[in-house]
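Quick one: structure tokens for this chain, please?
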Amino acid sequence: MPAWSPGGSWARACSHSRLHSCWHGQRTPLVSSSASMPRKQLSLVLYQDVFCAWSHLAELRLTALQNELGEAVRLSISPYPVRVADHPLTSEERRSWADESRQARAEPEGRNLRPDLWLGLDPPRSTLPPLLALEAAAVQGEERRQLFCRSMLRAALEEGINVARSDVILEMASTAGLEMDRFVACYQSPALRRLILEERRLARARGVNGVPTLVIAGRWMISGLREVAEYRRYLVMCMRKLSSERGSQPERVLH
């Protein structure tokens, strides 16, 4: 496989974007796809943070590709809190998050993004709570999680609402039609917090250092936002690579 040069926009926490074949997770079982593509289903895991504008754009682009490629790919979202600690942001941190929103607004899908959340009087202290809320919503079904996620993203990134606050989260969960007793029990569960932090620890141990990070087939990583055409090219290359391997060992590193 040829060298893959970085390009496109970058995630704030992953400015040096490369594709690696150093992911040591388990392989995903492969099934048949359409006749026009290599006959392997490609597992995609996108690590993201609700407050990261680049993560939002990456999910939009990859979802569009999933719809285009159909059963050839399977996209799932994994929480990766960029900021776990609960304490006020510094002025420099607030400027960094606001600059990210402004830059992401220049992308075709980002015209509604605003930096207001980071410039107001109530910026988030931690990015963990909304990720806990989304995982708690997922217990009630993926469709409800997606609806809740869209509401949270719109509120945070477009309307400047601090969706890390528990009162905001509970109000939005109720508006989204979630069964509140089940949601609250899961959202406030120490076990859920431990699970998300353990997933973050494992991801960091495997090379994920920021968001958005896309893991392909449990083996390759792309850090940072890419153009749709780049994502498509990389996915097709990986599918062909898997189809041609027939049990051979993958390369060590692809820069």
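DSSP finds nine helices and five strands in the chain.
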